[in-house]
């Protein structure tokens, strides 16, 4: 059952990616949301609408939470909830035309079931979950190596690092190096693929829903910076994802 869902959603995400690539041949309409660094484009909205239409047609009883406003605002996590970030890294999409991704996380009764993170321009697609296994393109991924903070690269949200929020710079100093990608999904992808040891940021559910569904089956720990478990219907929170319990403990202790 989950395997079938996996293949169906995978094909939708690839189709969404093709449409996004095609859209880059024409000019993009950019709007400002809460501030000049909080952008949305006509392509974010069109991609969300495309994915929501597919979900509603195939699974009419499911709940949907989308970043760009298409949401039936579920009050509880009961049943199946889809959390969509149609374009994660919108600023990269606008300014670089790459380093962005499409993300979907599927939860059942609050438990992460499947995640999809598609780096459209680099053609790197991680998808899967606990019952199906996690894949990078066609390769099944093994659990991520247990790397300590001192031996790995730490990903961070740029503003959080620049302003040293919650001692982010101190954590960075403990790590081998710091990377700021400007795209939560690509940070998760890097951690999942063992290229980066952890990620510390300020995230909304659509920024981490796919990532946690993909990370946890590979032995990664995901939680709020406070150590509190995440809740998919919460608002924006300081969030960490780490490769190992040791690494996460180190980050929590440093804070
Ligand atoms: C943002 C990006 C960014 C992260 C922000 C997110 P968006 O998502 O993932 O890297 O630092 O917290 O809001 O708005 O581009 O989908
Ligand atoms: Ca946004
Ligand atoms: Ca996002
Ligand atoms: Ca987005």
Automatic annotation (TrEMBL):
BP-aspect Gene Ontology terms: inositol metabolic process; signal transduction
Binding residue positions for Mg(2+): 67, 85, 87-88, 207
InterPro entries, per the entry: Inositol_monophosphatase-like
Entry cofactors: Mg(2+)
GO molecular function: inositol monophosphate 1-phosphatase activity; metal ion binding
Keyword Transcription regulation part of the UniProt annotation: no
Keywords: Hydrolase, Magnesium, Metal-binding
Protein's name according to its UniProt entry: Inositol monophosphatase family protein
């Amino acid at each position: 059952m989950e395997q079938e869902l996996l293949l169906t959603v995978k094909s939708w995400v690839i189709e969404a990616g093709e449409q996004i690539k095609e859209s880059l041949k024409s000019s993009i309409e950019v709007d400002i949301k809460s501030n000049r660094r909080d952008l949305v484009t006509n392509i974010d909205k069109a991609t969300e609408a495309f994915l929501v239409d597919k979900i509603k047609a195939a699974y009419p009883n499911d709940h949907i939470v989308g970043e760009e406003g298409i949401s039936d605002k579920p009050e509880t996590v009961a049943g199946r909830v889809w959390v969509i970030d149609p374009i994660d890294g919108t600023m990269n999409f606008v300014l670089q035309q790459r380093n962005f991704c499409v993300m979907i996380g599927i939860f059942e009764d609050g438990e992460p079931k499947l995640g999809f993170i598609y780096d459209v321009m680099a053609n790197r697609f991680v998808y899967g979950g606990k019952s199906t296994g996690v894949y990078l393109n066609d390769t099944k991924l093994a659990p991520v190596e247990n790397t300590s903070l001192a031996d790995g690269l730490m990903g961070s949200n740029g503003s959080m690092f620049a302003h040293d929020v919650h001692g982010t710079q101190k954590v960075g100093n403990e790590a081998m190096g710091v990377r700021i990608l400007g795209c939560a999904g690509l940070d998760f992808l890097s951690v999942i693929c063992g290229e980066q040891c952890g990620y510390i940021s300020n995230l909304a559910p659509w920024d981490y829903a796919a990532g946690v569904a993909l990370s946890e089956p590979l032995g990664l720990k995901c939680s709020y910076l406070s150590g509190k478990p995440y809740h998919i219907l919460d608002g924006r929170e300081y969030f960490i994802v780490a490769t190992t319990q040791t690494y996460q403990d180190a980050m929590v202790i440093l804070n």
